[in-house]
Write a structure and sequence with these properties.
CATH architecture of one domain: 3-Layer(aba) Sandwich
Order of helices and strands: EHEHEHEHEHEHEHEHHHHEEEHHHHH
Helix content: 40-55%
Strand order of the largest sheet: 4-3-2-1-5-6-7
Structural class: alpha/beta
Radius of gyration: 20 Å
CATH superfamily of one domain: NAD(P)-binding Rossmann-like Domain
Distance between the termini: 58 Å
Shape: globular
Largest sheet: 7 strands, parallel
Number of helices: 16
Strand content: 5-15%
CATH topology of one domain: Rossmann fold
Length: 384
């Protein structure tokens, strides 16, 4: 049997580690040909020794000495910085590139992996948020697939099962509501870094955990769903579902609704995409419906969580505005995590940068890159 060759970008993060769990469980089906990490050189070193890829990369350019040391110890070439990630994507993408990085840094390696002939298993929302039209068009030109690993998009992918967008009335994305679902505005004004990082349901990296608490993550997911499934933003709804058991739903034009349910474990959507279009048994315990008791649904509060509105508005404007949204959010979250701004300053800072941006319709990749750079600089220097 020929094993599917996987490259894994973001191998030391939560999605990356779970992807490697799947690879461990099915060693006859998958070969890891490339690994990349951001800064966690210790774990990357261990992963290289275990999976013996053809090459690896460290995104942080200041860690070149560590990259050289790992290469000497393992005999595996380890590239460094943004150019290192691009080289990995161009030369070692394999049959499928799993993009589990966080942020804008995943855009150019994703395009390079598609250009190299790999399908793209996408867990990085920002790739389609910032350049969705360009990325999806290029994948179509190349005859490559973009397959969603995010639990919500994977749920919709499974519900659609090849159904054309014309048959869809609504996509319904579910959100846990995060740790502040019942918090008042005055309570949100006092939120600390530690409180915002305490997500009630999912284990995620710091940036995504903060995005989940502000509902920006759900705004990004709506934009991503728009590009993945060719459904207008007006037909994409968000509902709060604190149990996180229904991962998302599709309502069809005849009124039928299909929902995908499952355990809150990223192993399941990862396995689904790595084996697509096949399904394989695994050792995870099945969902116990008798233990669920209740499934709650409620609308999001856009007054308390304005980031969701900011995302929808930026997507409707289009052009470079979604890239600016993403860049301003990345900087705002980083500033909050460094205790430079307050929790409620996150949406205020993003809105201020969006208001100042001169939009470029139908942008090129260079236009998107420049908009990203401008927005980061403005968000870093903005006084809230």
């Amino acid at each position: 049997m020929t094993r599917k060759r996987l490259s894994l970008f973001g191998s030391t993060g939560s999605i990356g580690r779970r992807t490697l769990d799947v690879a461990r469980d099915y060693p006859d089906d998958f070969a890891i040909v490339a690994l990349s990490a951001g800064r966690n050189t210790r774990l990357l070193h261990e992963q290289i020794r275990e999976f013996k890829p053809q090459a690896a990369a460290i995104a942080e350019p200041s860690l070149a000495a560590e990259a050289e040391a790992i290469a000497r110890d393992t005999g595996v070439p380890v590239y460094c910085g943004a150019e290192g990630l691009l080289r990995l994507a161009r030369e070692f993408a394999g049959d499928m590139a799993v993009m589990a990085t966080v942020g804008f840094a995943g855009l150019f390696p994703s395009l390079a992996a598609l250009e190299s002939g790999a399908d793209l298993a996408l867990a990085n929302k920002e790739v389609l948020v910032t350049a969705g039209d360009l990325v999806t068009a290029r994948a179509k030109e190349l005859g490559r697939q973009i397959l969603p690993i995010d639990s919500e998009h994977n749920a919709i992918f499974q519900c659609l099962d090849g159904m054309r967008a014309e048959g869809v009335r609504r996509l319904i994305l579910t959100a846990s509501g995060g740790p502040f679902r019942r918090a008042t505005v005055s309570q949100l004004a006092q939120v600390t870094r530690e409180q915002a990082l305490a997500h009630p349901t999912w284990e995620m990296g710091q940036k995504i955990t903060i995005d989940s608490s502000t509902l920006m993550n759900k705004g990004f997911e709506a934009i991503e769903a728009h590009h993945l499934f060719c459904v207008p933003m007006e037909q994409i709804d968000v509902v709060i579902h604190p149990q996180s058991t229904v991962h998302s739903m599709v309502e069809f034009i005849d009124g039928s609704i299909l929902a995908q349910l499952g355990r809150t474990d990223m192993y399941l959507p990862i396995q689904n995409i790595l084996f697509h279009p096949q399904r394989r048994a695994n050792s995870l315990a099945p969902l116990d419906f008798t233990a669920l008791r209740v499934l709650e649904f409620e609308p999001p509060d856009l007054e308390r969580f304005p980031c969701l509105t900011l995302a929808y508005d930026a997507s409707r404007v289009g052009g470079t505005m979604p890239a600016v949204l993403n860049a301003a959010n990345e900087v705002a979250v980083a500033r909050f995590l460094h205790n430079e701004i307050r929790y409620l300053d996150i949406p205020a800072l993003i809105r201020a940068v969006l208001d100042e941006h001169q939009n470029t319709p139908n942008p090129s990749l260079d236009d998107i890159r420049l908009a990203d750079e401008w927005a980061r600089q403005r968000a870093r220097n903005h006084g809230i």
